[in-house]
Amino acid sequence: MNDLKRRLAAVVAVMALVALVAGDLWVGTLRSWWDRHSLTASVITNLLVLAVTALIIDEVVARRQRRQRAVSVAVQALIVYGQARRAYVALTTTVDDNAGTATEEMRALASMVLTASSSLFDDPVARAFLAQTERMAGVMFRTSSATSAAGPGTKERDRLASEMSRLKAAVTPLLGRIPAEERSILEGPSET
Fold first, then answer.
1. For residue 98, what pLDDT is reported?
2. For residue 148, which phi and psi values (nearest 5 degrees)?
3. Which candidate, 75, 88, 87, places its Cα nearest to that of 116?
4. 192 in a domain, yes or no?
5. What is the pLDDT of residue 192?
6. Rounded distance, CA 105 to CA 61, Å?
7. How far is CA 103 from CA 11, 15, 164, in A?
8. Per-10-residue mean pLDDT for the chain, 192 residues long?
9. pLDDT value at residue 64
10. DSSP-based three-state secondary structure for 176
């Protein structure tokens, strides 16, 4: 909403400035009025130029902040994705003592989702990733509670793999926001 107000104010200021210039060029009575009231003309034009300049600078700063926030949101999503990968690997690995590890990894994922959700929610792409992460976590928790000591069956593994591929597809647009050299450091070794 604030962006809309700022852009509307910029359009109004620019249109007023254009109208004054056009009136000065083509309307003789307006030009003679400005000539007789030079102080008023000077104050009005200076205020309009100042308003246009301030609005342009404000827009540049706002764009820079949006770009920086987009990268920050993408990094948070990548961290959550990494934890989801670790939980997925722990759940699908069939090791006798892995049940405790999978449970801890899923708790860590739930904690990360709760912590990161407030910043991910404002960004539409990150919100879609958050929704998919929540679906993935739900499937993992259901699978974990329903599996035996031997680990998840083929049907559960297929469902988990499908959800994991959807999660990877949801995080991919966010990865494009992170510079490549930083992304490789953040991603770590590929597990899936």
1. 59
2. -90, -175
3. 75
4. no
5. 46
6. 40
7. 55, 61, 17
8. 76 83 85 85 85 83 84 90 92 67 88 89 91 92 73 82 94 88 68 48
9. 86
10. coil
Position 11 in a domain: yes
Q: Which one-letter amino acid corresponds to residue 12?
A: V
User: Which pLDDT score is estimated for 112?
Assistant: 92
Length of the chain: 192
Report how far residue 138's alpha carbon sits from residue 141's, in angstroms, rounded to the nearest whole number.
Answer: 5
| DSSP letters for 86-130 | HHHHHHHS--TTHHHHHHHHHHHHHHHHHHHHHHHTTSHHHHHHH
Q: Tokens 């990865």 correspond to what residue? A: 175
Q: What is the largest CA-CA distance in the chain?
A: 93
Q: Which two tokens stand for residue 147?
A: 């599996």
Partners of 151 in the β-ladder: 148
Do 110 and 166 fall within a single domain?
A: yes
127 Cβ neighbours under 8 A, 6+ residues apart: 120, 121
Residues 6+ apart with CB under 8 A from 41: 34
Q: Residue type at 182?
A: E
Total domains, the chain: 2
Tokens of 65: 């902040």
> Position 71: which residue type?
V
Return the DSSP state at 26: H
